[in-house]
Fold this sequence. Notes:
This protein has 217 residues and is of the alpha/beta class.
Amino acid sequence: MVINVLVADDSEIVRRGLYDVFASAEDMHVVAQAWDGHSALEAARQFSPDVALVDIRMPGMDGLATTRQMRALPVPPRVLVLTMFGEDEYVDEAIRAGASGFLLKDTAPDELLSAVRRIARGQALLDPAVTPRIMQQLAEHSSRLTPAEQQVLDALGDRERRLLRLIARGLSNAAIGAELHLTEGTVKGQVSRLLAKLGADNRVQAARLAYRSGLDR
Length: 217
């Protein structure tokens, strides 16, 4: 299966670099490149990519608004937000806008390709090297849990709480399986049920909830 990718960044150098990375992978194809939010949204409408890499800071319409509008399309792409150190304050909005994950722009090519494959499969990207720092800042600046959120967390059993902590650490299903001595397939089913119980669209939103509640500790 070939993964169709849209690259949206206002820097031509960054776009070229990303294009070269994806061109090196036999299972990926860049269907379009965009230099701002409006051109990215139009490309998403026209080409229906599987995954869109969207820079947070773009002229005209920024990456947050672009993500939100992309996710509202009849055939929405999964969005991977590109960020830089110092832009953590935007990540919370990106998650709420429907992004499936985020990566630093200096991520190694192999890690970038792996991230796109994971997101194309419907997973959310939680990079263990980046997520704890960002999520902790989100927890410090986010509002308190709503009564409904607290009620849902209070209803979790011990195993569900442990699973949520591992998700918040950014572990993959395989890594969680090794930690809990379970098969990857079993973990996948448990994660799906936990997300449904939390009312979370993906693992990033679940991790955000864990950090806001202090459950990660």
